[in-house]
Amino acid sequence: MSASREPRRLRASHDAWWMAGAYGLGAAVMLAGYGATSLYWQHWWQYGAGMAVIALGVAAYAQALRSADSAFATPRMLDLVALLTLSQGVAALGGLIFLVGSGKLWAGKSDWLANCVFVAGGLAVAALSFRGVLAQRRLKQSAA
User: Fold this and answer.
1) CA separation for the pair 90, 125 (Å, rounded)
2) Alpha-carbon distance 104 to 113, whole Å?
3) What is the CA angle 130-73-62, rounded to 5?
4) Which among 35, 121, 125, 133 would be 20 to 30 A from 89, CA to CA?
5) What is the reported pTM?
6) Residues of the chain with pLDDT under 70
7) What is the pLDDT of residues 94-116, one digit of tens each?
8) Which DSSP symbol is given to 85?
9) How would you label 76-86 residue by residue, b for 16+ Cβ within 10 Å and e otherwise?
10) Per residue, what are the HEC states of 12-31?
11) What is the DSSP string of 104-143?
């Protein structure tokens, strides 16, 4: 791998670890918050498990990027992941807009914990996504 691609790979790995942490924390709160307390929401385990699977997948990607010869470290793959990351950030913002616009945050139902996880997680995923995409764009431009 050329030295000019190295900063993009390392930054992508770093950003992916943060993203895995955000999803992992959301999974932990969802699973513990509903699984270990008297709170009840019928979809807690599906969303908690889904977030855990995403966290593990993103962590595996971050780990794969630690190797300079990883297939995930090519410029084309880093560009593709940046596009997917941008899409994820836009989807997270869309979910936040829906959640706020629907009035669910003020409904006072037993899904209040899930809504808190969705708001905090959505903000974290959007911020980390946009931060990562901008960093990749800057690094790509500086290497050119």
Assistant:
1) 10
2) 12
3) 60
4) 35
5) 0.92
6) 1-4
7) 999 999 999 888 877 888 999 99
8) H
9) eebeebbeebb
10) HHHHHHHHHHHHHHHHHHHH
11) GGGS--TTHHHHHHHHHHHHHHHHHHHHHHHHHHHHHHHH
Amino acid making up residue 84? L
DSSP conformation letters of 21-63: HHHHHHHHHHHHHHHSSS---TTHHHHHHHHHHHHHHHHHHHH
Token match 């869309």: residue?
Answer: 94
| Burial of residue 110 (number of CB atoms within 10 Å: 0-12, 13-18, 19+) | middle
Looking at residue 144, its pLDDT comes to 78
CA distance 8 to 78: 8
Burial 125-139 (b: 16+ CB within 10 A, else e): bbebbbebbebbeeb
Amino acid at 132: G
Q: Which helix (H) or strand (E) holds 65?
A: none
